[in-house]
Q: What sequence folds into this?
C-alpha cells in the first residue's frame, strides 16, 4: 500500500510526546462512543476499536476509566461528529474528522487552517470517494509468510500484508478488524504496534520539495485543533 504506517504513527507520537493533547482527544472520543452505545467494549464494537487504538498510543488507564465513568454517569455533554473535506497545495486531498460541542467554532477553525496554508475546503463528497475505510493491524516477531499462513488457517480474508520496518502490517476490510485480532490472539500474540480503522488514500501524491513544508504546516495546524480527532491525506512523505 505504500503507506509506511509505522513511520506515520511514530511521527504523530513524537509530535504529541510532550503534550496531553492526544490523551484529551482519546478521552473525548471514548466518551462519545461509549455514550452512543453501551460503555462496555464487549457489547459495543465501536468502543472496542477505540480502546484498541488507545492502547497502541499508550493512553493511560486513568484517562480511559475517567471517560467511561463519565459516559456511565449523567453527563449531558453532547458532541457533533463532523467530517470536512478539502484540498491542500497542488491538489492534495485531506479529510478532517472532528468531535465538537460548538459547530460554528470548529468550522471556522478548520477553514482558517486550510486557507492560511494554501488550501481550501471542498463540499461533502469531493474528497472522501478517493479514500477507503481500512482496518490496520500491526505486529512484531512474525514474517509476512507466517502472518499469511496464520490468517489463512483462521479463515480470515485481508487486503494486503506488508513488512514495514520491524513490523508486519495487515490491511483488511473494516468488518474484519476483530477477526484479524482474534486470529493473532489465538496464536498467542496480544500486543499490536497499530490497531485501528482508518481512511487510506487510493492513490498517493508526491509534492515538490518547495511545496511540502506548506502542506506539513497545514496538517499540523489541523491536528493541533482541539476539536479535530483525525486528519487523513493522500500525500506521500519521504523517509
A:
Amino acid at each position: 500500500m505504500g503507506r509506511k504506517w509505522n513511520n506515520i504513527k511514530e511521527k504523530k507520537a513524537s509530535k504529541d510526546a510532550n503534550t496531553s493533547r492526544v490523551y484529551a482527544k482519546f478521552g473525548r472520543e471514548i466518551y462519545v462512543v461509549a455514550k452512543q452505545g453501551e460503555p462496555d467494549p464487549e457489547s459495543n464494537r465501536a468502543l472496542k476499536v477505540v480502546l484498541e487504538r488507545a492502547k497502541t498510543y499508550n493512553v493511560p488507564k486513568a484517562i480511559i476509566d475517567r471517560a467511561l465513568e463519565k459516559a456511565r454517569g449523567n453527563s449531558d455533554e453532547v458532541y457533533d461528529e463532523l467530517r470536512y473535506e478539502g484540498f491542500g497545495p497542488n491538489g492534495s486531498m485531506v479529510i478532517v474528522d472532528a468531535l465538537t460541542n460548538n459547530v460554528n467554532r470548529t468550522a471556522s477553525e478548520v477553514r482558517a487552517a486550510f486557507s492560511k496554508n494554501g488550501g481550501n475546503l471542498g463540499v461533502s463528497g469531493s474528497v472522501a470517494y478517493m479514500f477507503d475505510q481500512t482496518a490496520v493491524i500491526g505486529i512484531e516477531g512474525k514474517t509476512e509468510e507466517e502472518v499469511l499462513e496464520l490468517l489463512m488457517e483462521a479463515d480470515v480474508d485481508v487486503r494486503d500484508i506488508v513488512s514495514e520496518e520491524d513490523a508486519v502490517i495487515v490491511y483488511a476490510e473494516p468488518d474484519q478488524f476483530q477477526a484479524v485480532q482474534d486470529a493473532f490472539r489465538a496464536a498467542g500474540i496480544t500486543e499490536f504496534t497499530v490497531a485501528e480503522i482508518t481512511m487510506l488514500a487510493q492513490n498517493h501524491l508526491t509534492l515538490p520539495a518547495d511545496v511540502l513544508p506548506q502542506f506539513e504546516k497545514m496538517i499540523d495546524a489541523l491536528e493541533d485543533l482541539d476539536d479535530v480527532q483525525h486528519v487523513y491525506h493522500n500525500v506521500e512523505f519521504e523517509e
Summary: Residues 131-201 form a domain with the Alpha-Beta Plaits fold (CATH 3.30.70.980). The helical segments are 5-15, 21-36, 45-56, 61-72, 103-115, 144-153, 177-186, 212-223. Strands lie at 80-87, 93-100, 120-121, 131-140, 160-164, 167-172, 194-201, 228-233. The mean pLDDT is 90.
